[in-house]
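Our preliminary data section would be incomplete without showing what the modeling component actually yields. Below, a chain of 194 amino acids is followed by its predicted structure, encoded as tokens that our downstream tools consume directly.
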Amino acid sequence: MSRIPVLVPRMPATEHLVPYLRRIDESRAYTNFGPLSAAFEARVVAEVAPTLTVEHVASVANCTTGLELALQACGLKAGARVLIPAVSFVATASAVTRMGMLPVIADVDPATWCLTPAIAERSLTTTPFDAVMPVATFGRPQEVDAWDAFTAQYGCPVIIDAAGAFGNQGVGRTTDVVFSFHATKTLGSGEGGA
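Predicted structure:
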């Protein structure tokens, strides 16, 4: 049996990490708000959303925390219903439930395995929800322009769980996107998210 590489992380060689470790030691900032965190956030903006500024990015401990913060930033109340795809990692649903909200499971497109704006629109007629959290399944990017249009039409916030899609997934005008930098992702740093 041959292996099919789905997500192959771009991991740096040890000698490339040493200058960064020295900068951390020199700054004495070993966690949040240090110069390397700021530089990392600026690079995320440059790579995925060059029309935005660094104030639009927050680095977090992991993607799940990022999803939780994005849900909180939407101003949704406890008990809010969040539409999520039937195909996803458990963190998508757990972020919703940890915020006191209810995951509402939706079908996915059989060709892409993704929850699409058309599926979400059809779901509105039978299952009311307050927000949508589509997933960039296996790194396949979601169409942010279509999700922006969905938000404009229905007033429903959209947060894309793009855990495995850094480098593929763009950011919308109103559609938020959360990435993972776990060691198993396309840009692995051991852990983290933005």
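The beta strands are 81-85, 102-106, 131-132, 159-162, 176-179. The chain has a mean pLDDT of 86. Preliminary results of this kind motivate Aim 1 of the renewal.
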